[in-house]
Amino acid sequence: MLSGSSSGLWLLFLCALGCVIAEEDKKVISTIGSTAELTCIYPQEKKFILNKLRVFWQIADGSKLCSVVHTFNSGHENQSEQCADFRNRTRLFQDKLENGIFSLLLLNVSLRDEHTYRCIVQKKDVVFRVIHNADVTLKVAANNSLPVLSEPTGNCPDIGEKVTLSCNYSQGYPEPNIYWINRTDNSSLHPSSLKIIQDNDGTYSVFSTLKIEPNSDIKVGCIIENELLQQNLTVLCKLLNIWQITGVCVCLHVYL
Ligand SMILES: *[C@@H]1O[C@H](CO)[C@@H](O)[C@H](O)[C@H]1NC(C)=O
Ligand SMILES: *[C@@H]1O[C@H](CO)[C@@H](O)[C@H](O)[C@H]1NC(C)=O
Ligand SMILES: *[C@@H]1O[C@H](CO)[C@@H](O)[C@H](O)[C@H]1NC(C)=O
Ligand SMILES: *[C@@H]1O[C@H](CO)[C@@H](O)[C@H](O)[C@H]1NC(C)=O
Ligand SMILES: *[C@@H]1O[C@H](CO)[C@@H](O)[C@H](O)[C@H]1NC(C)=O
Ligand SMILES: *[C@@H]1O[C@H](CO)[C@@H](O)[C@H](O)[C@H]1NC(C)=O
Ligand SMILES: *[C@@H]1O[C@H](CO)[C@@H](O)[C@H](O)[C@H]1NC(C)=O
Ligand SMILES: *[C@@H]1O[C@H](CO)[C@@H](O)[C@H](O)[C@H]1NC(C)=O
After folding, report:
1. Is 183 in the pocket of ligand 6 (CB under 6 A)?
2. Cβ distance 168 to 147 under 8 Å?
3. Among 12, 50, 158, 189, which is least packed, fewest CB within 10 Å?
4. What is the CATH number of the domain that holds 43?
5. What's the gap in Å between 81 CA and the centre of ligand 1?
């Protein structure tokens, strides 16, 4: 591939001028569909002169054949070598470049964007030299849906009988954890079934059921945990027999 081989040439060229060990290694967490800001800041006392500046954003982990993410060369963007994946999705802060802010905005993030990115800044005195080099690792999470609890099936509130609740969650990333809890004392409840599948788009879906004896006014919670986002999505079901008909129970849903 043309873009692959020429980006390799760029790397060689940069090393010929002296490789700079990455000084920073940051982690950025972004959700699918949102805009990620990959930080690269190198302030100087004097303002940078744009036509003596080059900013290269590349994929640094070697995981892709094509590694060119964004190129700014001597006052102009030049995306002729940019990987097709990134077309129209990258922006520099044009009016902040002279102040040493070389951060990149990556629009409409998807799971395929999980890479380590490298920002390489060159300044021209006599020739262009690398003055700054920073790595940023992008972690992508998905949390676009809420867990869904079904209406209970089974006899309710007959003593000794159990009702079944099911909790479904779709399109989470990375693989979520699921917990069922007794919300009265926050003790954990053991699911009677649990299935986690990875869909074609890489996201995870969860299907779980719980059988409980509805012998009192009971509140049950289904919690979906995204460890990367440090986020718990909780749906509660307060089992009610609103029609006072033996055997018929409904769920009063509350999201937290
Ligand atoms: C953009 O870069 C390519 C090769 O890297 C070069 O051939 C082309 O002339 C450049 N375009 C502009 C407008 O500088
Ligand atoms: C990028 O944007 C240009 C101009 O808006 C458009 O013509 C082109 O089709 C877009 N390319 C992609 C890959 O979305
Ligand atoms: C965002 O990217 C997805 C594919 O990853 C695409 O289907 C969708 O149309 C894009 N949305 C926008 C607003 O460009
Ligand atoms: C997903 O996470 C983001 C960032 O933490 C948050 O702003 C958003 O509300 C969450 N989405 C849902 C459906 O909870
Ligand atoms: C959850 O998924 C199972 C299996 O696909 C389905 O039978 C059930 O109706 C779903 N429940 C809800 C509340 O969507
Ligand atoms: C929920 O907790 C309350 C208080 O500890 C307890 O009385 C009740 O039996 C528990 N329900 C279930 C289904 O474990
Ligand atoms: C259960 O957990 C919720 C949320 O973490 C909290 O607000 C509530 O006070 C807890 N209840 C008990 C009985 O510990
Ligand atoms: C989510 O809830 C589970 C179960 O109650 C708990 O162990 C975990 O620490 C919670 N995680 C976060 C990020 O609040």
Report:
1. no
2. yes
3. 12
4. 2.60.40.10
5. 8
